[in-house]
Amino acid sequence: MLKIGELATLSGLNASKIRYFEKQGLLTVGQRQANGYRVYPDDTLDLLNIIIQAQEVGFSLNELKGLLPNFRDKGESHHGALIEALEAKLKSLSQVQSKIEENKASINAILSTLKADSLGDDCIENARQLLNSMPRHVLI
Known about the structure:
mainly alpha
């Protein structure tokens, strides 16, 4: 069993973040000892590391809520759900990456136009021309 301070030190998170994960339903609520300290099962550190890594690759806490309780089961029944979630996240990241590449290409085209100084000196007219020449997906 680990105290919340020990979990915080080992995971690199502060205690308030661990309590927040508890409130969000990602962690089992720590038991209180007679002295008032919260204690957690030893595998909570592994679970915190999974949460941290999952957030780093783009999973939201809501997405994790459906997956994390399954890690404690240690059964094969949730293996498929985990694979599906990872494949969906990979697809989503690929879509975001494609969108970023499109935006970079559009910005490079605008930059080339500006550097070539093929437009006149009228700033408002230049802006109109550039906006009209830009694909609509770049406009946010």
